[in-house]
Amino acid sequence: QVQLQQSGPGLVKPSQTLSLTCVISGDSVSSNSAAWNWIRQSPSRGLEWLGRTLYRSKWYNDYAVSVRRRITINPDTSKNLFSLQLNSVTPEDTAVYYCARDDYGDKFDYWGQGTLVTVSS
Amino acid sequence: DIQMTQSPSSVSASVGDRVTITCRASQGISRWLAWYQQKPGKAPKLLIYGASSLQSGVPSRFSGSGSGTDFTLTISSLQPEDFATYYCQQANSFPRTFGQGTKVEIK
């Protein structure tokens, strides 16, 4: 059974960096069939896919255009986790952030528990 | 980006009712469509993928159909635990995009 456990601060100041981690159990961040995603949800933007990291003989990343200049998703094979960094945050980045596994490219079948991140001074 | 539009935005129904939710993609996505159920304070839960494949462990009263641009999620006999918000999501191209949600409420 795959489980994803998120951690990270719930409050970030404007212009600073939002950092979250997602620890994977029951699968590997280096899986050749899965991709590891970050998705956020807010009342104004709904569910919004932010990006993913995946390993297919080498590491790849895909990012949403809306956050491409500010986002980094990194795998950590030693700890079997992946992380999200979102730079220069504004109040519009306030949302519940989820990590999720994308199995074979057609579905988000496992999700983390969600982390409410509020951007406020 | 592919826009996903769900209708209705909300539906009031009674236990035992048949409920149908539709999702329209702004361009053809073949059968690259998934459906999720979300309850308050919880992460979305996968119900259907590939437009009509039932995720393991999901009750058979849930079914999906469609291809191209028009898709349907049907709950054949609504149960108390089915009152939730439902989302469609396209997996045809990046960025992955979701519908705005359909809230199924108690009548």
Total beta-strand segments of chain B:
11
Helix and strand content put the structural class of chain B at mainly beta
DSSP summary, beta strand count of chain A: 11
Q: What is Rg of chain B?
A: 13 Å
Chain oligomer state: heterodimer
Structure summarized in a few sentences:
The complex is a heterodimer of chains A (121) and B (107). Chain A is an all-beta fold and 121 residues long. Chain A is built from no helices and 11 strands.
Structural summary, described in words:
With 121 residues, chain A is mainly β. Chain A is 0% helix and 57% strand. Chain A contains no helices and 11 strands. In chain A, strands 2, 4, 5, 6, 9, 10 and 11 form a 7-stranded mixed sheet that branches. A 4-stranded antiparallel sheet of chain A has the order 1-3-8-7, with no helix packed on it. In chain A, a hairpin with a 3-residue loop joins strand 4 and strand 5 (46-55). Chain A is globular. Chain B has 107 residues and is mainly β. Chain B has strands at 4-7, 10-13, 19-25, 33-38, 45-49, 53-54, 62-67, 70-75, 85-90, 97-98, 102-106. In chain B, strands 2, 4, 5, 6, 9, 10 and 11 form a 7-stranded mixed sheet that branches. In chain B, a hairpin with a 6-residue loop joins strand 9 and strand 10. In chain B, 34% of the residues are buried. The chains are: A mainly beta (121), B mainly beta (107). Chain A binds chain B through residues 37, 46-49, 62, 64-65, 98, 100, 105-109, 111-114, and chain B through 32, 34, 36, 42-46, 49-50, 55, 87, 89, 91, 94-98, 100-101.
